[in-house]
Structure to design on (224 residues):
């Protein structure tokens, strides 16, 4: 496993931003939970090879629409690692209230990555809004590897500085309840990451977060 050392004196490893920038961004209202199941299903069915499904240890499932037209290299990296099972069992190691939830480091420290080469930056014009999925990196622009984060609230300071490669299309309510901390005392894990095109069943596991069987929860319809 290649270990990575990140710039010190910033907001922590793998996501280089200053604290004042966060405080200046006002939260926005949480979107309505009225998204229809058929709309989600249709969106997934339209391009299942570009939908990343995250089954979480809190019993939830998150569907992420990958956007190769925004960042083709980053999307291909996420898909490659997901097919390899790289993200299975990985924790959300850095979760900041009102900002974002970061994962993708198998060491759980924020200093790890995959054995694949770092990616060239693909900064784009897509804003970092609630539900945006973007790649973490060090102070060097071309240093993204496997770690990514999901944004809780808009952060304009991230725009054109981090590679935005997708958006949550279902299960944002499950992202909202990911355990907070750097790292959390009892971190939420990705039990299984897969592409919708793979057709993998949801895991039938005991949830360490809830202490109960998740089979019924994981088989429930996806809801925003």
């Amino acid at each position: 496993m290649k270990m990575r050392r990140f710039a010190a004196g910033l907001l922590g490893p793998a996501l280089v931003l200053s604290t004042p920038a966060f405080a200046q961004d006002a939260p926005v209202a949480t979107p309505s939970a009225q998204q229809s199941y058929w709309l989600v299903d249709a969106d997934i069915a339209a391009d299942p090879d570009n939908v990343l499904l995250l089954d979480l240890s809190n019993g939830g499932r998150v569907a992420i629409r990958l956007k190769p037209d925004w960042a083709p290299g980053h999307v291909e990296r996420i898909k490659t690692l997901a097919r390899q099972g790289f993200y299975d069992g990985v924790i959300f190691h850095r979760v900041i209230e009102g900002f974002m939830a970061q994962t993708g480091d198998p060491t759980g420290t924020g200093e790890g990555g995959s054995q694949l080469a770092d990616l060239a930056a693909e900064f784009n014009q897509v804003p970092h809004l609630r539900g945006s999925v973007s790649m973490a990196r060090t102070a060097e622009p071309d240093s993204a590897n496997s770690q990514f984060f999901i944004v809780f609230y808009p952060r304009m300071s991230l725009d054109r500085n981090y590679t935005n490669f997708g958006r949550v299309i279902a299960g944002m309510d499950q992202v909202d309840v990911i355990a907070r901390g750097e790292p959390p005392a009892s971190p939420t894990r990705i039990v299984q990451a897969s592409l919708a095109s793979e057709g993998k069943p949801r895991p039938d596991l005991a949830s360490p977060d809830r202490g109960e069987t998740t089979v019924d929860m994981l088989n429930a319809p996806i809801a925003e």
In short: The mean pLDDT is 81. The domain at 33-218 is CATH 2.40.100.10 (Cyclophilin).
